[in-house]
Amino acid sequence: MKSNPSSIRSDKASALHSAERLGFARHHAGDAPIVNQDVGLGDPLPPRRVANAAHAALKKGMEAVLVRSIQQDGDGGYIGEIYGFEPHHGTQFEGLKLGDRIAFGEEHVFTCGD
Q1: What's the pTM?
Q2: What is the pLDDT of residue 2?
Q3: CA gyration radius for the chain?
Q4: I want to staple 112 with a disulfide (CB 3.0 to 4.6 A). Which of 12, 24, 53, 64 is the partner?
């Protein structure tokens, strides 16, 4: 059986995709921060804390791929479960399905929150 280079089967029968291999957008140093919480006037912006986040938004083209159940992997990245797409709102988007898992790095995270 030929394996798809953009996904790997996991033990849960849901695909494990790679944001890097699928060409997800990257947040570059110097890009304006996106904050998903209240910040008081004059208070410093909080750092993005992906490791402690309950959910995050990754981007593929103009689509936000929403991820939850985020865990750190052994390579310094993260793995999370896909739970939604915006603005698409369907159950699938470009080969990704609700419930699939995706491996991603800090640079792929555009928003995250508790």
Answers
A1: 0.76
A2: 39
A3: 15
A4: 53
Asked if the peptide bond before residue 87 counts as cis, ω within 30 degrees of 0, the response is: yes
Residue type, 91: T
Cα 55 to Cα 66: distance, rounded to the nearest angstrom: 7
Question: What pLDDT is stored for residue 112 in this prediction?
Answer: 84
- Token code pair at residue 77: 């990245």
